[in-house]
Amino acid sequence: MGSYLVLAMGVGLQSVPGNLVLQEPANEYHYSRETGRVLKLAISVGSEVAKKKIMLQYVTEGSEETKALVSNENGYVDYVNPNAKPGKVFAPGELLLRIQSRRVFGAHYFEPKEIEHTKAFQKIQTNSSLWLCSDARPIEVRVDDIAKNSLLVSMQLKKEEYGQLQQTIGGGNFALHQSVQACL
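Request: output the structure for the sequence above.
Response:
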C-alpha cells in the first residue's frame, strides 16, 4: 500500500494544511430498458473505460435495431451481468453494467484563523490545482469552489488509490500543495 506524505519539504513551496474528507466514488448503473440480445461486449470487470466508450452492443427483440450502452464518465467496470455476453438475451429491468467513477469529490477543511497567517490561501482560485503527495505519484486536486473555511475539491484516482487515501486521511490533518514540485 502506498502512503501519503503529510508535509512538503522545500524552500518557498506553499502548502494548505487541513482535513480532507472524501465522498465515495459515484457509480454509473446501466439497466436494460427492453429485451435484447448481446452482439458485442467490449469490457470486463476491472477494466478501465473512457467517457463515451461503447461498452455493449445489442439488438432489440422484434425490430432487430442495433443499440449500444455508452459510458457517461471515466471509470472502472465494477460489475457485468452474466447475461451480458454475446448471444445471450436479457430482459427489461436487468442491471447489465456498473461503472465506478474515477472522479472523487471532497472538501478540504481548514481553520479560519490559519487563513490570516498563510499567504498560500490568497493564491488559491476556483479551477486551479493543488497537489497531494503520494509514494506512487503526485495526485492533482482540482479546486471546484472556495467556501469560508473549506475548499470543495475533486480528483481523478486510480481504482486502488481511493481505499489507500481513505485510510491515510482518517489519521488527521495534512497538507495540499500549490506546486507539484513539493511532491518531487
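The mean pLDDT is 85.
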